[in-house]
């Protein structure tokens, strides 16, 4: 039982428990036993913080069903190992070497020291942002739905925003609040900070603390911080401009809106593909170009160490730097005057190849099971599932059972990670002293 197998089986265990809970009669608004496929799909989508749903969560599930969904999203966003480690801390048991290695791999940390403090920081950061999100959303929901329902709506959407899940209790998701600056600002802020990674937030906090206390020595930002923040800001800016330019003349999305609302819509649509499935427009009515831009942003995804999925921003930057080095005739890959190790380059290539292979295979299989669907709809749904985004053109509830099962598997692969899943299947690599001769190969 390797660490990677423990993590993969842990997610399967949580999905199984969630499926059972969502199948119980008191989890549905009708009071009947839930459809096993609906329960399995919803549980997988929640634990994998995807947000895809084959039913309307606000009307199909009772309060307890919605509560279980929020709980599963919270566990999935924190990660199986983080949640398990937090429970270990609560009962007072000390970490052994295996626990530290598991935390290191699950959080993609460079070292094993300070694992307990890292888990406490992650839990504290999560609570601070989610509670803040609840208080900011209360003025938007309470006047319309009253205190009880308004408070639950604020809690549910704050949890889904921070964990980049995207489940909504409204039939039209957040389309009804597309002109609300408060809702758009709160949800997008939760999405960005939830997906940018805990280490980035911690470094930002330490830098601000040193500045406020006017310390002589300031916090020095790591390469992870520089790459994650710069790439995130660049993608958000490019996405906003692209959506504003492309959808401006589309009367079904941006065309009929005022200039202020168009900016809000473009900003939200640029943020939400960062693996959060909220939407303030009808995705199915977007132009083909808009859908392809959304697919590209979804595939890239969030940053490592956060609650989002996708290929990750750091992987994109490493691959882009490799291309730049080749074009400049360099023999080493540099990022912010730092040399990137060969094992990180190989890992980035492996993530890219594995991600593309998963998307291609899932798209082919769904095209075979549901041939009546358009290619762009299938590709959009598959990338949304793999990158744990949750956006949909509206076909999730209408696809066949076989297609639903394919999407379930795709969501699971996207959440645990392609390389981690392959490591769990094949086992840890064995070291070898064999060295082979080098030979040239025609490439490109």
Write up what this structure looks like.
- The chain is mainly alpha-helical.
- The protein has one domain.
- 64% of the residues lie in helices and 1% in strands.
- It contains 17 helices and two strands.
- It has a two-stranded antiparallel sheet with strand order 1-2.
- A hairpin with a 2-residue loop joins strand 1 and strand 2.
- It is globular.
- The mean pLDDT is 87.
Q: Any low-confidence stretches, pLDDT <50, length ≥5?
A: none
Helix percent reads 55-70%
How many DSSP E strands? 2
Rounded radius of gyration (Å): 22 Å
Main sheet: which strands, in order across? 1-2
Structural class: mainly alpha
How many distinct helices? Answer: 17
- Molecular shape: globular
Secondary-structure element sequence?
A: HHHHHHHHHHHHHEEHHHH
Task: Report mean pLDDT, rounded to a whole number.
Answer: 87
Strand residues, percent: under 5%
Total of domains: 1
Please give the largest β-sheet: 2 strands, antiparallel
Termini separation comes to 41 Å
Question: Can you give keywords for this protein?
Answer:
444 residues, mainly alpha, two-stranded antiparallel sheet, 17 helices, 2 strands, 64% helix
Secondary-structure blueprint of this entry?
Blueprint: H1 3-23, H2 36-47, H3 57-60, H4 63-78, H5 80-90, H6 97-107, H7 115-162, H8 181-196, H9 198-213, H10 223-247, H11 259-271, H12 288-300, H13 313-327, E1 334-335, E2 338-339, H14 342-369, H15 375-386, H16 401-416, H17 418-426
Antiparallel strand pairs: 1-2
């Amino acid at each position: 039982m390797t660490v990677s197998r423990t993590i993969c089986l842990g997610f399967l265990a949580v999905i199984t428990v969630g499926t059972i809970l969502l199948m119980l009669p008191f989890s549905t608004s009708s009071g009947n036993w839930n459809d096993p496929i609906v329960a399995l799909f919803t549980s997988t989508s929640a634990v994998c913080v995807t947000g895809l749903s084959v039913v309307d969560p606000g009307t199909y599930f009772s309060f307890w069903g919605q509560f279980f969904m929020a709980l599963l999203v919270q566990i999935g966003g924190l990660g199986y190992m983080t949640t398990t480690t937090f429970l270990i801390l609560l009962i007072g048991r000390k970490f052994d070497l295996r626990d530290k290695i598991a935390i290191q791999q699950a959080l993609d940390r460079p070292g094993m020291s300070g694992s307990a403090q890292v888990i406490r920081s992650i839990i504290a950061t999560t609570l601070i942002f989610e509670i803040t999100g609840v208080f900011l959303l209360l003025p938007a929901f309470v006047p319309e739905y009253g205190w009880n329902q308004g408070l639950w709506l604020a809690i549910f959407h704050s949890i889904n925003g921070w964990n980049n899940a995207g489940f909504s209790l409204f039939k039209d998701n957040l389309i009804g609040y597309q002109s609300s600056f408060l809702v758009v600002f709160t949800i997008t802020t939760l999405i960005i900070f939830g997906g940018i990674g805990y280490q980035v937030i911690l470094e930002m906090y330490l830098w601000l603390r040193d500045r406020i206390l006017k310390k002589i020595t300031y916090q020095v930002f790591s390469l992870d911080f520089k790459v994650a923040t710069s790439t995130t800001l660049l993608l958000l800016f490019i996405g906003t401009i692209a959506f504003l330019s492309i959808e401006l003349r589309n009367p079904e999305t941006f065309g009929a809106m005022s200039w202020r609302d168009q900016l809000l819509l473009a900003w939200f649509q640029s943020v939400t593909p960062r693996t959060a499935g909220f939407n303030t427009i009808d995705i199915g009515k977007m132009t083909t170009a808009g859908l392809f831009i959304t697919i590209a942003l979804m595939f890239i995804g969030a940053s490592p160490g956060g609650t989002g999925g996708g290929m990750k921003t750091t992987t994109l930057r490493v691959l882009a730097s490799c291309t730049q080095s080749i074009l400049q005739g360099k023999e080493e890959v540099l990022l912010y005057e730092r040399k990137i190790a060969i094992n990180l380059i190989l890992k980035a290539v492996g993530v890219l190849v594995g991600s593309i292979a998963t998307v291609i295979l899932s798209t082919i299989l769904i095209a075979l099971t549901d041939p009546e669907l358009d290619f762009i709809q299938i590709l959009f749904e598959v990338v949304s599932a793999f990158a744990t985004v949750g956006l949909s053109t509206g076909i999730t509830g209408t696809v066949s059972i076989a297609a639903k099962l394919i999407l379930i598997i795709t969501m699971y692969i996207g959440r645990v990670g392609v390389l981690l899943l392959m490591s769990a299947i094949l086992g840890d690599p064995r070291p070898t002293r064999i060295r082979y001769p080098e030979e040239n190969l025609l490439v490109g």
